[in-house]
Amino acid sequence: MDAFYASVEQMDDPKLRGKPLAVGGAGKRGVISAASYEARVFGVRSAMPGFKARKLCPDLIFVRPRFDRYKEISSQVRKIFFEYTDLVEPLSLDEAYLDVTENKKGNPSATLIAQQIRKQIFDEVGLTASAGISINKFIAKVASDYNKPNGQKTVNPEDVIEFLEVLDVKKFYGVGKVTQAKMYQMGIYTGKDLKSKSEEFLTQHFGKSGGHYYRIVRGIHLSEVKPNRERKSLAAERTFSENIASEIYMLERLENIAEELQKRLKNNKVSGRTVTLKIRYSDFSLQTRSKTLPYFVSDADILLETARELLYQEKMRDSVRLLGISLSNLNTGKEKRKEKEKEEVEIIQLRFDF
Fold first, then answer.
1. CATH of domain 158-216
2. Known catalytic residue: 95?
3. Which residues are annotated as a binding site for Mg(2+)?
4. Does the record carry Hydrolase as a key word (predicted)?
5. Which of 95, 165, 247, 305 is catalytic?
6. Residue among 216, 233, 121, 132 nearest 172 (CA)
């Protein structure tokens, strides 16, 4: 979807159409969740501090996020996806992978299917969407950003290598700002530059990701579309109106965060074993500290106690602007099956003891 949150706000309120708009970030400490294309002209982007966005665009309009509304629209869009294929892998509220190799419409052209889906979304929901079409998820993802907004890009099998060779490495999905800077320092600016490096070289300088970069620049990405994508973690966090330097005040905030996370875990009927404390300092640097427990938890008291232990694990580097708690290693999928198998083994052992 194109500038999803912002586009929903403009659709629901005609007064906002055609104007630079930012969702979230209105307060002194706020962060932009989404920016309309009118705002992006000024350089406003998601994850940008609100005060910085205001400097770039003095006429920027801030609106509060309405996640229930975004989820409602997202459900309508996904319903359309399932009219074409059951192989739908959501990445977020506004994005998903679709495998249309075999589709419900019997249409042999993925390009035409993308056009139909985009038209149907516009006709039934009222929003524009963009699409990337290619031989695997990685290239389709890169292509989906190519002709935004309200466009699509098809990369045919015979064009894959040429497409990747001329692409700036910063446009490779998975290459963040830090990796981009490192690649630039090494003289790796395009896919062709990246392709000239051996797998050994890339692994030496980028670890496990090096092998990934070696394969994707050659158009190799074997990940299938997984319709039942398992949730890997749940989190809650807070950005504060003023920096916090006292660990006592931090613990007070963490108590509220732990209670919020407990609610989300309860609503999703999951628990987990790995507690991670997220700390964003006043200079915007980020630090995480984690601990894996020997049992599954979802209780706020245990979450808070573990977060407290992680907070005091080492001295704080600076005052803090954001704190968060996340829980991973959830009892879904593999973890749930492992736990069930463990319980079955224990039952069998007890029976033998008797």
1. 1.10.150.20
2. yes
3. 94
4. no
5. 95
6. 216
